[in-house]
Design goal:
This protein has about 325 residues and is of the alpha/beta class. It has a single domain, classed as NADP-dependent oxidoreductase domain (TIM Barrel, Alpha-Beta Barrel), CATH 3.20.20. The chain contains ten helices and eight strands.
Length: about 325
C-alpha cells in the first residue's frame, strides 16, 4: 500500500463536511489518487450511512486493480452472523468480490471479548472475501487480547502532530509484533493545514466535535501551525505537507490517511511522502506540540459527544 492514503469519511456526505462538497469532485479525487501514486482508499459503512462505500464502488468500477480497499465493521457488530452480514453488505456497496483490509472500527462498547468477531473475520478471510485483518482505535492491551486468538495485520490509530498519545505504549507494541500502523486524522481534520485561525474556524457538523478545535487546545495548536509555516517556507512546501512528512518520519508508521475533497488536494497530500525533514526540524515540531501532550493527558479520545462548542480544555 502507498505511504499516503486517501481517506473517504467525507465521501457521499453532502453538506455535512461543508457547503463546498461536491460528489463528482470526490470521484475525481479517487481517480487522481492512483495517478499520483496513492492506492490505499479508506472508507467505512459508518461514513454517511454507507454512502461513502457506495461512492467508492462507483468510482473504481472500471479500475479495481489500481486500489487497495480498506473498510470497517461498525461498532458492536460482534457475532459471527453480524460480521458476515456486515461484510456482505460492504461487498455489495463497494461492488467488489474481495475487501483488501477489514478493520474493527472501534472496540465494542459492551466490553465483550474480541475472539468471536475476529474468528468470523478469519473465516471470511479463508473464504477469500477478505485479504487482511485489522483494528482501529485499539489500545496496546486490546491489541494483545486480539493477538492471543487471531493474527491481525494492522492498527489504525488517531495520530498527528497535535495528538501523539500512541507514542507511549501503542506504537512500541505494534513494532514488537510487526503490525502495520495506518494513521488517521494526520492533519487533525485540517487544523494542521494552516487554513484556520481564531477568526476563521470550520462551520461543518463534524470538526467541532474534536476537542483540538476548542479552548486552550486550539490556541496551542495554532502555535504548532506557526512552527509548520516556518519549516514549510524553508522547503517551499505547505503546512499540510510538512505535517504529513513529520508523521511519516515517525518509527513504525506505515501509511497516513489524508482526506481530500478535490483532485488538487490529493496531489498536494501525495507530495508529503517525498518531503525529507532534518532531525532538527523533526525535533522542533515535536517540541512545539509537547504542551498538548500535557494538556490532553487525561483525555483518551479526540472526540466528545456533547454539543459543539461546549467542550473546553483549559
Amino acid at each position: 500500500m502507498s505511504r499516503v492514503a486517501l481517506g473517504l469519511w467525507q465521501a457521499g456526505a453532502g453538506a455535512t463536511w461543508g457547503a463546498d462538497y461536491d460528489e463528482s469532485d470526490s470521484i475525481r479525487a479517487i481517480h487522481a489518487a492512483a495517478d499520483v501514486g496513492i492506492n490505499l482508499l479508506d472508507t467505512a459503512p459508518a461514513y454517511n450511512r454507507g454512502s461513502s462505500e457506495e461512492l467508492v464502488g462507483r468510482a473504481i468500477a472500471d479500475r479495481r486493480d489500481r486500489y487497495v480497499l480498506a473498510t470497517k465493521l461498525s461498532t458492536n457488530q460482534i457475532t459471527r452472523q453480524q460480521v458476515r452480514t456486515a461484510v456482505e453488505a460492504s461487498l455489495r456497496r463497494l461492488a467488489v468480490e474481495t475487501i483488501d483490509l477489514l478493520q474493527i472500527h472501534w472496540p465494542n462498547s459492551q466490553g465483550e471479548p474480541f475472539a468471536e468477531t475476529l474468528g468470523a473475520m478469519q473465516e471470511l478471510q479463508q473464504e477469500g472475501k477478505l485479504r487482511a485483518l485489522g483494528v482501529s482505535n485499539f489500545s496496546a492491551a486490546q491489541l494483545a487480547e486480539c493477538l492471543a486468538t487471531t493474527r491481525i495485520d494492522s492498527l489504525q490509530p488517531p495520530y498527528n502532530l497535535l495528538w501523539r498519545h500512541v507514542e507511549t505504549a501503542t506504537l512500541p507494541f505494534c513494532g514488537q509484533h510487526e503490525l502495520g500502523v495506518i494513521c488517521y486524522s494526520p492533519l487533525a481534520q485540517g487544523l494542521l493545514s494552516g487554513k484556520y485561525d481564531q477568526t476563521n474556524r470550520p462551520h461543518d457538523g463534524t470538526r467541532p466535535r474534536n476537542l483540538l478545535w476548542h479552548g486552550r487546545c486550539f490556541e496551542v495548536a495554532l502555535q504548532v501551525v506557526d512552527a509548520l509555516r516556518r519549516i514549510a517556507a524553508a522547503h517551499n512546501s505547505t503546512c499540510a505537507q510538512v505535517a504529513l512528512a513529520w508523521l511519516l518520519h515517525q518509527p513504525g508508521v506505515t501509511s497516513v490517511i489524508a482526506g481530500a475533497k478535490r483532485p488538487d488536494q490529493v496531489a498536494d497530500n501525495a507530495r508529503g511522502a517525498d518531503l525529507r525533514l532534518s532531525a532538527a526540524e523533526l525535533t522542533a515540531l515535536a517540541a512545539a506540540s509537547d504542551p498538548l501532550l500535557t494538556l490532553t493527558a487525561d483525555e483518551p479520545k479526540m472526540w466528545f459527544t456533547g454539543q459543539a462548542g461546549e467542550y473546553d480544555v483549559r
